[in-house]
Amino acid sequence: MNVENAFGIIDYCMFAGVLVISSGIGFYFSYIGNKSPEEFLMGNRTLKTLPVAMSLLTSYVSAITLLGYSGEVYGNELQIGSIILGGPSALIFASYFVLSVLYPLKLTSINEVCT
């Protein structure tokens, strides 16, 4: 095992600190800050466009995606370009047609459509 790449005591302390702070924020907003699951999960449906868009963007473009694109281009050349063409057209379709049907239903998850 290469000792130079191992975590040290400072690394473990920083990692634990980030987990404790994140957990503290989560517990505060789940127990003290909000009263209902609707408020906690959906922001009481009062969020503006920018926070929702940034949340969707960060969940769509992950680090795995960024790392995987280079391997995909190396392995299959530029066939990944179909995603560049298909992604925006799927977003436009979903925002005008699917969202206009699902938003008035006040659903928390797409799984509620089937029940």
TrEMBL record:
Cellular localization per UniProt: Cell membrane
Protein name: Sodium-coupled monocarboxylate transporter 1
Keywords: Cell membrane, Ion transport, Membrane, Sodium, Sodium transport, Transmembrane, Transmembrane helix, Transport
Protein's organism: Armadillidium nasatum
Membrane spanning residue stretches: 6-29, 50-71, 83-103
Membrane-protein topology: Multi-pass membrane protein
Any GO MF annotation of the entry: symporter activity
Biological processes per GO annotation: sodium ion transport
Family in the record: Belongs to the sodium:solute symporter (SSF) (TC 2.A.21) family.
Major localisation: membrane
Lineage of the species this protein comes from: Eukaryota, Metazoa, Ecdysozoa, Arthropoda, Crustacea
Family annotation (PROSITE patterns): NA_SOLUT_SYMP_3
A cellular-component GO term for this protein: plasma membrane
Keyword flag Ion transport: yes
